[in-house]
Amino acid sequence: MNQDPKEVIRNSLLRVYEVLKFTPEEAKKALDEFMGLIQVSIMTELLNGLSEAEIKSLGEEFAKKSPAEQQKQAESVLKSHYSQEEIVKKISGATKPVVQEYFAYLKSRGNKEVDRILAEVS
Q1: pLDDT in tens, 89-108
Q2: Which of 15, 19, 33, 111 is such that its CA lies 20 to 30 A from the CA of 70?
Q3: Nearest-angstrom CA–CA distance, 52 and 54
Q4: Which residues of 12-30 are buried (b: 16+ CB within 10 A; e: fewer)?
Q5: Which of 121, 88, 86 has its CA nearest to residue 103?
Q6: Which helix (H) or strand (E) holds 5?
Q7: Residue 50: which residues within 8 A CB-CB, separation 6 or more?
Q8: Extents of the domains making up the chain
Q9: CA–CA dist 105, 122 (Å, integer)
Q10: pLDDT for position 1
Q11: Cα(121)–Cα(37) distance, rounded to whole angstroms?
């Protein structure tokens, strides 16, 4: 059974935060911030293929739409520029350096248990 890579990373980070004695609130905040960085990285990579006018138009349109409508429109625009394979490749390419850098930061704390947990998912 293959687990979703996002869930594997999430669960590993929760274990790391527990080892580092984060409170549940601190762990949730740290995980939310990390996932936010990933989202920004992904969106930046995907938007790089759009023209300035397309990005401006999307921004104006998004302001008028519900989150579900925004999601649908974003998928439509991306599919008009990229194949599904290209989207997956861009997401992976945008995510990998963020994860590696964050893991390196966590490993720099010198905790052997943290190193072991992160080695399981690296």
Answers
A1: 999 999 999 999 999 999 99
A2: 33
A3: 5
A4: bbbbbbebeebeeeebeeb
A5: 121
A6: helix 5-19
A7: 58, 77, 81
A8: 5-121
A9: 13
A10: 53
A11: 19
pLDDT digits (tens, 9 = 90+) for 20-64: 999 999 999 999 999 999 999 998 998 888 888 888 888 887 788
Output the six-digit token pair for 29.
């905040």
Name the nearest CA neighbour of 55 among 77, 22, 88. 77
Q: Which of 83, 94, 118 is nearest to 104 (CA)?
A: 118
At position 13, the amino acid (one-letter code) is L
Tell me the residue type at 64: K
Per this entry, what is the length of the chain? 122
3-state helix, strand, coil in the chain (%, to 5): 80, 0, 20
Give the tokens for residue 119.
Answer: 């080695």
The distance from CA 75 to its chain's CA centroid, rounded to whole angstroms, is: 17
